[in-house]
Design goal:
mainly alpha; 66 residues; elongated
Length: 66
């Protein structure tokens, strides 16, 4: 989350200077909810890196890498 925050902070300062930086997690969670509502579940992978390659490979229809 730290790296994401740093990237978001750089971009946000230019795009949305009025948005308080402390709200990063709230902004990210709201964005995730909007995406989940907009994209059909069959076309959306809610992926966490900790899950490893298998869920991503299955979703993409490719072999799991070694």
């Amino acid at each position: 989350m730290q790296k994401s925050y740093a990237i978001w902070q750089k971009i946000n300062l230019k795009v949305n200077p009025e948005l308080p930086m402390e709200n990063f997690q709230d902004v990210l969670l709201r964005h995730t909810e909007r995406v989940k509502k907009a994209i059909p579940a069959s076309q959306l992978l809610m992926y966490r890196v900790e899950e490893g390659w298998e869920p991503l490979a299955v979703f993409l229809g490719v072999p799991v890498p070694d």
